[in-house]
Design brief:
This protein is of the alpha/beta class. The chain contains 18 helices and 19 strands.
Length: 457
């Protein structure tokens, strides 16, 4: 295997799910003896801010100026905004690709790269292909796509159903073909398994690149991420045993991770905890107002944690950076409390992933990142439908089929969100769903890093 490898990783800009995966993978790759540098490359200010406090000196962050990546799904009032998605994102793909490649060149991102991993950034795949043609006398850059869907398929399912004008349809079809052509230039595809990545995508990628994609045998992350963040002295031993034996995490890892996560969130009681999350998008900003008002007027007998900056702003809740000392390490998280509601913001040095062991139930849309995190800590899901978002709805159905979640319609959630998670005034217990989650292995970032390293041998 080659040594002193420089690896670049690029998450897409649509929500925080793939960025969360990139943080975990970047840290795992930095542990590999053959890797000298890991570069994380982002292309919007939101993602740059998210990643800015997450890494040690071995992992660097490059933020491309002028926000050159246009691939996103626009949201409005709990559903997909198809027209904005088409006009502001899909039809601008060609322009976005050129701008992205230009900014990569100015930043000299690829000049010393050995491997580039994109999490749904076809512009990056095209850039690596062009660089390999240009640098024929140099070593070839290995291009790998790690993802939970395919933009060309997802966008076609989302936007094509409502298009009637022939001229408009031709432009959309051409843009989708451009994206697919760039996706097809990757050298290897590594996909999540169901329910995070649907089998439709597995077959689609096989047709696109001409061979079967590699499948991650489980989810990324788990209790060891929380133990590492808390500088738990048992972490190194547990990590070494897990990496060598591939056995499940021991029960005491979950128990200790839960203790740390609840301390980080300021939870000082023994009551169960609900996490409410719109998945880092604006999809629930206005919809949650009624639920939060209900909790303030009629306090629940359980804790409610939420990531919802718009809600905190509306209610005048200031998020302060709270320092928590764990095993001599200072961990910090932005949080603010109003009644039984705790709003959270950034967690310094890590993602919200490390907080998931504190939760007993998660009320959310079926975004791949949130579903992955819930499975990693065996926390059952109450999944709300997201009208118009084909991929998210397919994930939700897959979770229901595998009995790791319960589902509610968007109208039920909007009309009485609290009733969706309560039974006789208590937080519902989905013990069967939690038990089924144990059939999906966690901490597969270890497997993923090893697989990537083998591609460099």
């Amino acid at each position: 295997m080659r040594e002193n490898l420089e690896i670049c990783i690029a998450p897409n800009e649509d929500g925080f799910g793939t960025s969360g995966w990139v943080v975990g993978l970047a840290k795992e790759l930095a542990r590999q003896l053959a890797v000298s540098t890991v570069k994380v490359v982002v292309a919007t200010d939101k993602r740059a801010q998210f990643h800015s406090d997450k890494y040690s000196s071995q992992i660097t962050l490059t933020a491309l100026p002028n926000e050159p990546n246009s691939i996103q799904v626009a949201k409005a009032a709990g559903a997909v905004d198809i027209e904005r998605t088409i006009d502001n994102h899909l039809l601008r793909y060609g322009q976005s690709r050129g701008a992205y490649i230009d900014e990569l060149a100015r930043a000299k991102v690829l000049e010393s790269a050995d491997m580039v991993i994109d999490f749904g950034v076809p512009q990056m795949v095209r850039a690596v292909y062009d660089a390999n043609l240009r640098f024929k006398s140099k070593k070839e850059i290995v291009a790998v796509t790690v993802f939970d869907h395919a933009w060309s398929l997802s966008l076609s399912r989302i936007v094509l159903s409502g298009v009637t004008q022939r001229e408009h349809l031709n432009r959309i079809t051409a843009a989708l073909e451009d994206i697919r052509n760039d996706e097809a230039l990757t050298q290897e595809v590594i996909l999540f398994g169901e329910p995070i990545c649907l089998l439709d995508y597995h077959g689609y990628w096989r047709m696109t690149v001409g061979h079967l994609p590699v499948v991650i045998p489980g989810c990324l992350g788990g209790p060891l991420r929380t133990l590492a963040y808390a500088a738990d002295p048992a972490f190194e031993g547990m990590y070494a045993r897990l990496a060598a034996s591939h056995e499940p995490c021991p029960p005491n890892a979950y128990k200790q991770a839960r203790s740390y996560a609840r301390r980080l969130l300021g939870i000082e009681n023994d009551e169960p905890t609900l996490f409410v999350s719109g998945g880092g998008t604006s999809v629930w900003d206005r919809v949650l107002d009624g639920l939060f008002d209900d909790y303030l007027n009629n306090p629940p007998n359980y804790n409610v944690i939420t990531y919802n900056p718009a809600g905190a702003n509306r209610l005048g809740v200031a998020l302060n950076l709270e320092n928590v000392s764990l095993n001599g390490a200072i961990c910090a998280i932005e949080r603010g409390t109003l009644g039984k509601l705790t709003f959270i913001g950034r967690s310094m040095g890590e993602t919200h992933h490390v907080l998931f062991p504190a939760f007993d139930l998660i009320l959310t849309r079926a975004g791949g990142g949130t579903v992955n995190n819930a499975i990693a800590f065996r926390v059952p899901l109450m999944l709300v439908e997201e009208p118009g978002m084909w991929q998210v709805e397919q994930i939700r159905r897959a979770c229901l089929t595998r009995h790791i979640a319960q589902g509610v319609t968007f109208d039920e959630f909007r009309e009485n969100g609290r009733a969706c998670v309560e039974s006789n005034g208590a937080l519902v217990q989905l013990d069967t769903q939690a038990e089924h989650m144990h059939s999906i292995p966690n901490h597969q970032e270890i497997w993923l890093a090893n697989t990537l390293m083998h591609l460099m041998s």
